[in-house]
């Protein structure tokens, strides 16, 4: 199941930028169960592997990076989430890029509010700029119902053809380069209680039927439930 070179390059570049984030946030790697760290599945009869890693520190509950590779060691998807500790007003970062049949079938980016005041004063303009650029230059996708009330009002859900890969890549790099500054600003704020916002986001992600279905087709239903409910989005 080969990917085209420009798609693989785009996803690889985003993955490199994502791997830098835990270093920039001074995070430590976390040991995770082997069944989550490396999982094997199939897409259209072809072997694929998903590698997951996690980091944390005193202010971030966890940063999780999942990379899906085909048998040729080419990237098929990059998924990143950063969930702060409940007392830190830092937004939840969500990034999901999926390459399929030579296009980016999903370009999803969001800074999800944990503390509404902090989000409006520090994060809103960044997210709005991402949304404006995506609406202007990428193929728009319908905002999924599960995001209502838990994601930001400017969440990006799009797709990209090959001539749009550079722009899609630049949006991911912009979000990732913005986050360390938001992190530093959040640490200077009065502690908040973002428990409800974080739990609502996790509940919403558990309702993502398309992700659940896609993972089930690749890895089976038992692994998918275990991975989503006992690893990614534990309540």
Write the layout of secondary structure elements.
Layout: H1 5-24, E1 28-29, H2 34-37, E2 38-43, E3 46-56, E4 60-70, E5 75-84, E6 92-100, E7 103-112, H3 116-137, E8 139-140, E9 156-160, H4 165-187, H5 195-206, H6 209-219, H7 221-232
Antiparallel strand pairs: 1-3, 2-3, 3-4, 4-5, 5-6, 6-7, 7-9, 8-9
Give me a quick take on this structure.
It contains seven helices and nine strands, in the order αβαββββββαββαααα. It has 235 residues and is an alpha+beta fold. The chain has a single domain, classed as oxygen-dependent coproporphyrinogen oxidase (3-Layer(aba) Sandwich), CATH 3.40.1500.20.
Task: Jot down its keywords.
235 residues; alpha+beta; 44% helix; 28% strand
How would you describe the overall organization of this protein?
- By secondary structure, the protein is of the alpha+beta class.
- It has a single domain (5-232), classed as oxygen-dependent coproporphyrinogen oxidase.
- The chain is 44% helix and 28% strand.
- Strands 1, 2, 3, 4, 5, 6, 7, 8 and 9 form a nine-stranded antiparallel β-sheet that branches.
- Strand 4 and strand 5 (75-84) form a beta hairpin.
- Helix 1 runs parallel beside helix 4 (165-187) and helix 3 packs antiparallel against helix 4 (165-187).
- It starts with a helix and ends with a helix.
- The model has no long low-confidence stretch (mean pLDDT 96).
């Amino acid at each position: 199941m080969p990917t085209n070179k420009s798609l693989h390059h785009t996803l690889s570049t985003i993955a490199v930028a994502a791997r830098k984030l835990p270093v920039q946030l001074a995070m430590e790697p976390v040991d995770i169960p082997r069944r989550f760290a490396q999982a094997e599945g199939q897409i259209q009869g072809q072997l694929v592997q998903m590698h997951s890693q996690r980091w944390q520190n005193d202010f971030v509950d966890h940063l999780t990076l999942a990379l899906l590779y085909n048998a040729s060691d080419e990237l098929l998807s990059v998924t990143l989430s950063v969930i702060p500790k409940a007392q830190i007003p830092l937004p939840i970062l969500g990034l999901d890029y999926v390459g399929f049949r030579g296009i980016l079938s999903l370009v999803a980016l969001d800074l999800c509010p944990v503390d509404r005041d902090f989000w409006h004063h520090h994060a809103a303009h960044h997210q709005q700029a991402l949304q404006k650029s995506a609406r202007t230059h990428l193929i728009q996708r319908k905002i999924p119902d599960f995001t209502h009330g838990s994601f930001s009002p400017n969440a990006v859900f799009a797709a990209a053809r090959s001539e749009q890969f550079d722009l899609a890549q630049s949006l991911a790099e912009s979000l990732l380069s913005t986050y360390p500054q938001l992190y530093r600003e959040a640490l200077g704020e009065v502690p908040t209680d973002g428990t409800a916002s974080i739990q609502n986001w996790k509940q919403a992600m558990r309702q993502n039927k398309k992700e659940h279905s896609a993972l089930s087709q690749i890895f089976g239903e038992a692994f998918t439930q275990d991975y989503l409910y006992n690893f990614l989005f534990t309540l």
